[in-house]
Structure formats: C-alpha cells, structure tokens
Model the fold of this input.
Amino acid sequence: MSKLTRRSFLQRSLAAGAALSLPAKVYAQAPGSNSAIRIATIGFNGRGNSHISAFTSIDGVRLTALCDADYAVLEKGKAALAKKDINVEGYTDFRKLLENKDIDAISTATPNHWHSLIAIQAMQAGKDVYVEKPVSHNVWEGRKAVEAARKYNKICQTGTQSRSSIGLRQAQEWIKGGGLGKIVWARGLCYKRRPSIGKAEKPLEWPQTIDKDLWFGPAPIKPLMRLKLHYDWHWVWDTGNGDLGNQGIHQMDIARWFLGEDALSPSVFSVGGRLGYIDDGETANTQFIYHGYKKAPLIFEVRGLPDATDSKAMDEYRGASIGVIVQCENGYLVIPSYTGAGAFDKSGKLVKRFGNFKVPAGQTDPGAPEAASGEGKESDHFANFIKAVRSRKSTDLHADILEGHLSSALCHTGNISYRLGAKAEQGEIREKIKGTKEATDTLGRMVDHLGKNGVDVSKDKLVLGEFLKMDPKTEKFVKNPAADTMLTRDYRKPYVVPATV
Done:
C-alpha cells in the first residue's frame, strides 16, 4: 500500500464524508430469483472479514463494495480481494455507499454504537441488511430497526448464527415438545477470559488514517483514554455493552429461544462489578442477570477472570464455559457450543445428543439425528440470509431482526439495572435476592469464584443493581424515569436515529 499522508487522507475523508441526508426514496430493487445479489460490507477490521469470506463463497452473490472509516483498513481489504480477482469499490463514509443504486444488500460489523443506525439508513435506501449482534446499542433504537424492516419490507438478518444450526434447531424442537418435561429455568454462560486493557496515563493520539467523526458517529467525541482503540471499545459504555452484549448476546439469544419467550422480561436485576484489576474499562467483567419471566426465569452469568487453578482455562458449569443450560423437570440440556447439545436425565445420564455434541467420558453415545450431519458451517447463516433476500419472505430468516432486537434488549436491560445500582455488602445483596433461589445460588458461586481469584467482596464490593419492572408491550420501565432515560441515548448530530423511521 502506498504511503498515506495526513493531507491526502483528510482530502479523501472530506470528499467521502460530505453531509448526506437520508434517502428520499428506495433506490435498489428487490433482486430476482436468478440475478446476482450485489452486496457490500461495512466495517471489517474484525468480524466483518467473516462476512466477506462467507459472501464471496456463496453462488449467485457478488461482493461489490467495502466501507470502513479507517482508510488503511479499507485499502488493505481492497488489495486482498484484488489478489483473488475480486475488484470492489471503496468508501470511508457508509452514507455515500448507500447512494449506490447497484448495491442490493449490505452487511455490517462496525462497533455496536453504529449497528442500528446503519441498518435503518440502509433499509431506507432500499437495501436488505445483515447486521451483527447485538443489533443495537440500546433498546429504543433496536425497536426502530424492527420498525424500519417492516415499513420498507426489507430482509434484515441478525448475526446470531446459532439460529441456523441444524443440531440446535432439532434440540429446540425436542425441548419445546416436552422432551425433558417442563422448563424450570434457563442459564446462559459467558465465561471468557478478559484480561486488563491497561490504563492510559494521558489522552492518546488519534490514528491519522481514521475519520474520527465517522468512527464516533452517534456517540460523543471524547479523548482516546485507552491503550487500544480497536476491540476494547466493547468495554466502554459509549460504544460497547460489555461481554454481556458482546459474546453473551449469542447465549442470551439461545436461552430465550429455548424458553420460547417473544417479549422482554417483566422484571430484571443484576449483580456484579469490574473486579480483579483496575483499568480503563467501564463495563462489568463479573456479573449475573436475573430476568423474571413468569413461566421460567432466565439467568445469565459473565465471568472474565480465569479458573483459579489454571490461568489459561475458564470455569465450567455442567461442562460448559460459553453456553446454555436448560433445566427441566426430568433432566437438563447442555448447549456448550453454537452447534451441539446434549440431553441428560435426572441422574446425569446422557439420553440424547444433537449436532456435534461431544459425548462425555464414561457416557454411552445415544446417537444423533441424521439431519444433523454436516453440522457446523457458519456460512449456513449467511446463506439463509441470501435465501430470504431472493424469496422476499422475512419468515424464511432464521434470525429476523425482531429476534435480534429482543435478545439484544435483554442484555441492555440487564446492564441498565447494573448501571443504576450501587456497591453493597454481601449480606445486603443476599437479603435483597433471598426470594429467588437461583439468584442466591448464583451469587454464592460468583463470590467463591472471585475469592479464588484473590477478590475479597468485603473490600471490593459488588454492585447491587436496581430491581426493575418493565411493561413488555411498550418496552418501557414501570414508574422509573431514570431507567427509561437509559433505554435510548443522546445522539450526536447528524448521526441521529429518527423517532419515525
């Protein structure tokens, strides 16, 4: 790549980033069943590369454009594709890309604070959308993305690829049909090592190749006070949602899916903290959330510190570190991956497995359904999106935007409880949650885990989140203006999610 001077970069950015109004009409037409789907990827310094790889491997799909606010990333991506004889247009401003009438659909994997706005403006411009998880940075804008998809009759897929897993789809149907009896509770797990991100002594210089205005977009522009700009935005509230809304959204979605809930929970509270180190991160690295659904609760756990006996390993719960446990009357289901599940009876005997679930040592293989053969292709989820783009039926999607909104919002409401909370003594927390056995048990295991990692909760106190009640129909909290304020954000102009899409 030729040397990029600050002047040349600014010139390019100004040209690409001229203020653009929302499209006044739909440009792209719904592609026919036999024509090539022309797609563009927006944001590909990380997860977006998987989008590029998937779409360039699907027959009948043509990647025609790339967009990234980092000009160096953009040029590198274009050059890599050129070596494969794939020539694409490049943009630093996604709004300019949306003016291109020859693009049928976009996929986006930008930081979280951009997801909903890009999705909404893309659909307003006539494009179908594949939007990474979480689909929103807050509850309100996620609902606006759903409204946009319905108003403009657009296909909008969420990047929770477990929904396309054959094995998990079979397991969900089996549980739904009463395979282990009534569900008692579902528990999502995000035990994933997250070391300290360090602490900046002073504001760091902004990278010259990145358009700062476009990078921050809807978020307030602030000095760069973390050692690494990329990825560590997950742990800052203005741009990320912690690991609950990063890795955890996958498991939150699976848990809600298996519970069969199609609305937000009527009550929620959270307990946790950022513990074990002091750094520039703001979000919790140790946390549990209790969603009080009437039929059965959804409990979610986040742990960023390792198994105290092995710094390279993580704790496990019933054989899973990143997964879901569905407790039923006659046993339980363990989902330790995106593509497999194992059903156990009350005695702990494996009675059924789905997908590529690995049979535990000492257990007899009960066999898996034949249809789960070939399980494990992430590209199936992208292919499902393309199928729906061709059929023009949102019902063909495995993870329609509504599913993504609901699961993302469960992460957001859990974080709202946490952010409205205050540090408390362990005894006070236990007294507050004593009416919920599963929460009490979860707190005990959390405290034990922290203690083994050298964290004394009598000194480094946990945050007891506010106990919130919600009206699932309006997606607003009950008599809590402070919590309602956190359902949305103050958008920095002109990057504003419209109240009416």
Observations:
- Residues 1-28 have pLDDT under 50 and may be disordered.
- The first strand starts at residue 37 and ends at 42.
- The chain has 14 helices and 18 strands.
